[in-house]
Amino acid sequence: MPKSNENLRELLEERALRHAEKNFLFSEADGRSWSYEEFYRFVNRTANLLLGRGIKKGDVVSLLLPNSAEYIIAYFACFSIGAIAGPVNSLLKPTEIEWVIGNSESKLLLAGSQFQSLIAQIKKPETILFNDVAHAAGEFSVDLAEVQIDSSDDAIIIYTSGTTGKPKGCLLTHGNLISNARQITDWLGFTESDRLLTIMPLFHMNAVSVTTMTALYAGASTVVSPKFSASRFWDIVAKYKITSFGSVATMLSILMSEPPAVAGGSDSLRFAMCGSAPVPAEILKKFEETFDCLVIEGYGLSESTCRSTFNPPNENRRPGSCGLPIGNEMKIFDESDNEVADGELGEIVMRGPNIFKEYYKDLEATAKAFANGWFHTGDIGYRDADGFFYIADRKSDMIIRGGENIYPREIDDLLYTHPAVASAAVIGVPDKLYGEEVAAFVVLKAGEEVNEEELLAFCAEHLADFKCPKAIHFVGDIPKGPTGKLLKRELVSSHRNRI
Question: Which of these three, 339, 356, 383, is where a domain ends?
Fold first, then answer.
């Protein structure tokens, strides 16, 4: 396996020398491709574009771009001169985007032309439309001035959605990104023959780390697609001989209604990687049975660069578990930061080379997150006797009903097993007697019928009384984030009047 490097520029330089003629990057949208050497040259041209605009080491360059080859080139251009890439979630409202750009003290914005009307509404730094790297970067020299970059230098500032208040800017270093790429590559056994598909948004670390940085580290190839499309997915897999892809449970569920158009269209796939939220056991089982393709669950956060755990990429993986640590330490702590016994619920904590540096301009949040030397994730879970970890819920999502702790994840999983249920989300709602009560929002499968009484009886059959929903609301859809993760908090506000 290739050795580690001190920084991302060195890593790219080494891979460009080693795999000069090999295809590294494919743009699925328009058929363009770059060999490792060509990618390196375009990165350097873009880096010189940034230098020409006065960008220096430590400056933030905001990236408001669609999923594209340009996005990946822009990332590495920043890394190559020691600038900090600042990906911006393009689904945010103008005021939210303005806040993120302003808080990061961005010196330059690279934007896609499709976002012109949006950026016209916000206060911003100097802006460059960066749609076509060949045009935007021009014919700058490909030789960069040497800038000393250490593994501890910042590479990315990514804003995490907080449960309260404004998002926090999570600073990840060159060492963080290289460490996580090495961990993922080694654990999943990626090699030069792999082709990874990026359909997750590149403004999240999942796409950056799992299917882009890991491909580079392994000397493999990556294919970037503008967005997830179930109707085109299997054609892409067949055309590019994709061996693995990043996904969330919602994607896997949708794909089960879109079989490959050509026999053997999924034969190249080794496994699907799935994260962001636990996969309901029923969805995982049906996907594997339908496509004869393993689903390898993992767990992580932006603060851990991306993945902290993965299941083994073979028959030893455990459905329902997020797997084993792949290179960082993980433990389960109680409220007093004491480790709990196997099988007991508590907060997941971790430490290791992939754990982020700090929250930007937020010493208090950083100190709280790293209490007693461990990063506190805010996620509730447990470890079994064999060391496999399981996620119960977000600490902040926990429902406290009359002094009893209830984890919505358990109830979600049960509702997914009902034959009429397509998706479900359980939340806590205010209750005068118990403080909080359990409510479920359910989307039914097309053509299926079931009433509230029947679903309540189904829950009562399998759950303790205090865990059972007291109301079930049938909805046409459940709000989802850009990665397909169910946005439970939006249910609280959007349905407050009807609860």
Answer: 383
Instruction: Write the single-letter amino acid at 286.
Output: K
- The answer to whether 214 and 182 have CB atoms below 8 angstroms apart is no
* pLDDT tens digits for range 3-12: 457 899 999 9
CA-to-CA distance for 389 and 278, rounded, in angstroms? 11
Per-residue pLDDT, 472: 94
Contact between 158 and 103 under an 8 Å Cβ cutoff? The reply is no
Residue 405 has pLDDT above 60, yes or no: yes
DSSP 398-423: -EEETTEEE-HHHHHHHHHTSTTEEE
Band of residue 483 on the pLDDT scale cut at 50, 70, 90: low
Residue 389 domain-assigned (yes or no): no
> Does 2 reside within a domain?
no
pLDDT above 50: residue 163? no
Q: For 410-413, which contacts have Cβ atoms below 8 Å and span 24 or more sequence positions?
A: 410/463, 410/467, 411/438, 411/440, 411/459, 411/463, 411/467, 411/468, 411/469, 412/280, 413/280, 413/281
Measure the CA–CA gap between 15 and 174, rounded to whole angstroms.
Answer: 16
In a domain, 388, yes or no: no
